[in-house]
Amino acid sequence: YDVVQNRVVKFEALARWTENGEVISPFEFIPIAEELGYIRDLGQLVLEIACADMNKLKQLGHSDIRISINRSIEELNHEDPQNSSILNTIKNAGLSTDDFIVEVTESIPLEDKPDVQHLLECLRQQGLQLALDDFGTGYASFSNLMKNTVDILKVDRSLIRNIDTDRNNAVLIESVNLLANQLGLDVIAEGVETEEQLNQLKEMGCRYIQGYYINKPAPFDSAITLLQ
Question: Is the pLDDT of residue 61 over 70?
Answer without folding.
Answer: yes
